[in-house]
Amino acid sequence: MRSKLARFTDNAARKNVIEPGKPVFETIKGNWHKHFENGHPLVLELGCGKGEYTVGLGRLFPDNNYVGIDVKGARIWKGSTVAEEEQLHNVAFLRIMILDIEQFVAPGEADSLWITFPDPRPRDRDEKRRLTSTRFMDIYKNILRPGGWVHFKTDNTELFDFTLEQLQQRKDIAGLTYTHDFHASDMPERQHNIITGYEKRFVAEGIRIKYLKCYFA
Ligand SMILES: C[S@@+](CC[C@H](N)C(=O)[O-])C[C@H]1O[C@@H](n2cnc3c(N)ncnc32)[C@H](O)[C@@H]1O
After folding, report:
1. Closest ligand 1 atom, CA of 99?
2. Among residues 100, 119, 126, 172, which one is catalytic?
3. From the CB of residue 156, how many other CB atoms can be counted at a distance below 10 Å?
4. Is residue 195 a part of any domain in this protein?
5. In principle, which of 39, 113, 170, 214 could form an S-S bond with 176, CB 3.0–4.6 Å?
């Protein structure tokens, strides 16, 4: 296992990791198509951790570009390593705080996004730090193309119900579809069969995975 320091050194030398200190970090906004050298749709995974979803989708759909976003460089390293080994040129990672995403993705530049097993942040005073809270949703609305899907998966019932409630209160949400038992559902997204480390653990404990998708009208 490589040390944290060695992972950071690897990340610094890799084209598929965009992070502070690299010239591309300052210029990537509005230029993702140049980075990938194609005009394919840009799909984001927010709080990607080790990037299992980003890499999994990248393998399945070579005609989309996938960017996993996380603040933790040592975790991103894992996904970036797999993407390099498998020569997945449609996969990259961006190391930022998600609150700052509008500095890196132009209005309407993203085709769709996935929020996979975010930290539930159960304390009331942390409500606005939840990645599905209203202030984050407003940010996603700005960076998504019209009709771009938001996908959300979680093990956490409280976070899921909070998110549903927030979305149902908004006037600008369309196509809201959800299930409290993703793996027993017939959602087309289930066919991707990408299961992250977190998800595996929850499923093994018998916890049902909750999933929803919607877009901004
Ligand atoms: C519970 S883990 C889930 C990782 C991955 N999605 C999975 O399913 O395996 C949540 C991840 O989100 C990242 N994260 C949480 N809040 C974040 C934020 N505001 N900005 C960037 N990353 C964040 C954490 O660093 C962590 O890697």
Report:
1. 19
2. 119
3. 20
4. yes
5. 214
